[in-house]
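## retry 2 of 3
previous attempt timed out at serialization; input unchanged, resubmitting
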Amino acid sequence: MKKSIFMLLFAACIAFTANAQKPTTTTASTAKPATTKMNTPTTKPAELNIPAAVTSAFKARYASATSPSWKMKGANYQASFKMNNEEMKADFDNTGKWLQTENKIATASLPSTVQAEIKKDFADYKTEDAHKLTTAATGAGYSAKVVKGTDKYEVVFGADGKVISKTKV
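## retry succeeded, writing output
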């Protein structure tokens, strides 16, 4: 009898020690005005501090947008939001300078000049994703993700439908 009580106490001590060594996590539920949750696949810090100049520039440019979600895109800040029932993303540098906006569109909504360029340069590729772009550097244009098997490219087109850049993804 003494031996079985000892074994039970020993097992309980082992279980207690194992549970005590598990890391615990805590989350803060208080939100700061200039802080937003960050959703990125590689790193997930609890909060991303958005400079006041960036949030101010966003509000000035997209006054009717509500509840943007922010993430880092390289060294820049990217807001994802809906405005006028359109899914949009806008990029700003850390001083609040607007860099670009992209509106998600149906692939069939790409202009015929862009669709012709895709057929010419990417024969047998399927267009999976399309956006209308407006950038500070190049003005209006479009982007599309084209896929064939394991080959995937993000292609940027000018307003005239000509390829500006293509990036393997």
